[in-house]
User: Fold these one by one.
Assistant:
Number 1:
Amino acid sequence: MKCILSLFLFLSSHLFALEQCSTQQKESISNMDELLSYRTPPELISKEITSERKHHKKYLYTIKAQNQNKEEITKFYYYHTKKGVGVKKPTVFLFSNIGGITILERYIGFYLAKRGISTVVVELDDIKKVDRLEKVSPYLVSSLFSSMNIVDFIVNEPYTDKDKLATIGVSLGGFRALYLSALDTRIKSATLVVSGLSITETIANSTLQLVEDIRNEQMKAAGLNPLQDKSEYEALLKQQIMFNVEDLLCRKNPKNYLLFQSKNDTIVPYFEQNRLYDALKKPKRTINNHFGHKATAIGFGMAKLCDTVEFMNSNWQ
């Protein structure tokens, strides 16, 4: 029988951080740690090179693991930096926006590889299938396990520097990056780009067409009127979330977070981005006062990756 991994092993060297958490917050952390401990070491199904450039090889990995006694298969792209032959590499776990992997995520992988940092790129799978409220919780749990499975796999590769791990999340992918950074103490820093605190309030208020379509399908399936029953929908949606992310953040240091936000954002509304800033105890952030969601994300890729690399390096020291 395969050994079950336990996050308590990873928490052992960080117990001091729990001292600043309330009893309720400690209980919430303990419950989530216990839930996510029911996973087996991931196994490789396949690995193929999809492209190769001067500074990196790009692979498509497929892995599997038993999560809560259910086999789950996860795919991800891996930009393996060629810089520093024979040296273990820092690794960034990059979560794409809800629309999938775009030129932005591909460019980030290219940029970081050129600077000696390998990158795992993960996209949201099957989000369109979450067309009923009762599917939200299983989907969220599956995504949490998937993130942990990927980290488990990568840290056991011989070319990974286990002490230099970070995550970047763009748009709704920022929620996955936030959850991973809050739940897994192996992650030393998180850069969150036009992302927020509450996934439920974001889904309830986002103007992104794909999110609106999913929201309308869920409301209709629940017998709610998309134009009149928004508050009731949001209340039902919150019932599907098994944890309060603010409880998990009590042990985090604001120095471990870097935020890029937009005041003109309606896809992840700015009030949600500002709530994230407050919940993280006011970490370093850059606010764009002129552009909206997509332009701010593109601007991050064009002008802010250098700052992000410096930020990650400072947390890895």
Number 2:
Amino acid sequence: MRLSPQASGGDPSAFLAYNPRLSSAPATMKQGIHPNYQPVIFLDTASNHAFLSRSAIDTKGRETMQWSNGKEYPVVKVEVSSESHSFYTGKQKIMDTAGRVEKFKRRYTRKKTA
């Protein structure tokens, strides 16, 4: 069961008294050791589909592209995304599973003795 200020009758001070770590100011992170978390455009080269997300990937020396909001963002090219992967598109290649099953059955089924 997770407690929340609403569970304590709507009084946030009762909730903070239960968990004193929440009442203190948030801890600041050390400067200079964390990667820069910034907006990046991921471009699927297979389907030419782009989406804007945030990433900590190194963007030094990467090309930039203008997004629909008019701002320039670095571009990370990917070969496969949900727009081009066969699992998500429903265009899966159906392999010859019947032939493989038959081969397995021939190889490993016991023959009846008379």
Number 3:
Amino acid sequence: MHDMQIQAGAPLIISSGSNENTTERSTPQRLLYLAVVIVAVPVYLADQLTKAWAIANLQPDQPRELIGSVLQLNLIRNSGAAFSIGTGVTWVLTAIACAVVVFVVITARRLGSRGWALALGLLLAGSLGNLTDRMFRAPGPGRGEVVDFMQLPHYPIFNVADSAIVTAAVLIAVLAFRGVGIDGTRSSGDKSGGDGTVGNGTVGESAVGESAVGESAVGDSPGSGTPARVSPGPDSPGHDSRGHDSPGRGVSQDQGQLNDSPRNESGAVRPATPQTGTGQDV
């Protein structure tokens, strides 16, 4: 088990650094969650305040120029969606707005990207702004009419909440096109965050560990230039009590032939007498 973990590059004991990394990662997530609220609250307040001002100062079907003919103030009450779509299904639009708010609150817990924090903050503010109108304006809860008062040429009349929702949709499309996930990772397969940071570094450490094991195995392999250390065993050739070489059970055939060669009185091996007259070139 110990060898398997060494080959995989995994430590036997979990270091305290992993807990520190978890704490470091959770802190930015809390900050991003707070960023969603910081973006949503001012936009929501701006939507409600401008609607209140429009109701108090504008009259229906009496447009007032704000920037020439480019931007006009024209008060209407809309029971449907954009372009007056779905005017008879206000309850459905109210349910959709509630679902969007719940989705944003749950999804914000997995935030790892500043771009997604901005997009979800705008989406939350816009959904809450129009949902407030649906719940608290006439003709009744869940069927209330949304106050719209800003008009562009050849464009439906809208409000601040609508602008926040459209901006959030554009940001989400850009982030999706770039492959940036809600948690900050990219869809290309690497684990780097939206800022190019790497996660825990365990992949790199594992690769280094496996590389070290591979180098060790190569160093001990034949032909690598690093001979393996072999301890002499009982079958290794040694010397007997008389000082002569005594081959063990593991000696090669050449060594055995060398031991069987004729010796002189001092024990040295006598050279073989060359043979001549064989008729062959040496």
Number 4:
Amino acid sequence: MGTAAGPARAAASSAHAPSAASPLGGSFDAGASAAAGKTAGLAAVPLPSGQSVIFTASLSLRTRNVQATVGRATQLAESAGGYVSGEHARVVQAGQHATPMVDIQFKVPAAAYQPTLTALGGLGTKRSETQRAQDVTGTVADVNSREASAEAAIAQLRKLLTRTGSVGGQDQINQEEASLEALQSQQRALARETAYATISLTVARTVPAPAQHRHGAGFLHGLTAGWHALRTAVTWLLTLAGAALPFLIPAGLAALAAIAGRRWWLGRRRAGGSPAAE
């Protein structure tokens, strides 16, 4: 969980990040972190003695003014003794609206983590929040033990090299020193991660509510409504007529054929009955 380089603003803020080159002592300096929290007016939360925990959180907010909210969030983190470790602005298309969003990551002293997270959550409408606490006390103790053992082994090898002066002894010392440097690097990374919690904040602009059309009253409104109803009725009637027309044409032709046939039959019947009457 090393800190990643962010944009220009993050790079400027990272200049205030404290160095964590000192070896781990099982946990971070809670006194210094508590002092930072009290300076910001936030109540510091002490950790159990000797415990090393990595705190991470993700928070998503909606607000009317994204940039103003990001500015207030940055002030909160910096007043608690933290800094900006990364920031990314983007625009998300939601339907017909373009929604600006800012993803920003803070590093804050672990003792001020919880009150800072609570204060950040009050800057807008909370959409989601997740928290994670990873206990790395065993990992820290293991790295410290291996680092101490490596230093002791190098000291013993140097004594042997002084007495024997063999080239092979120097090669072994070089290998042990490389292993020691790797352990010290891991030690510094754990020191940073346990001393400073990581809060990832996403701020999005509130989506505007759909416009509601007000219905008026009076003669003009009634005339408009009646005209609209008339147009709707005529449209429906024309639609029905258009749908029925393909069926009416064959039916009309059949009716005409039936009428013509009946007249022809009646004419023949009359013609056949006239001689008999004579």
